[in-house]
Amino acid sequence: MIVGKDIPLPWWEKYTLTIEEASLYFGIGEKTLRRFVKEHPNEEFIIYNGTKVQIKRKVFEKFIDEKVTVM
What we know:
Elements: E1 16-18, H1 19-26, H2 30-39, E2 46-49, E3 52-56, H3 57-67
Antiparallel strand pairs: 1-3, 2-3
């Protein structure tokens, strides 16, 4: 067990992404993502760590595939 060290993972292997990482990964602007999170605060792909927003990558991918046509 590694204690006190962050193990860097590529974005495509992370469970959650920051808004900045999600913006790059999904090709969606940061402002658009922040607005989307604000408009859908209770969606299952959002995790709040205090005031920091995390996006569950695979859940958001599924959400986009099924429900979003244009943001």
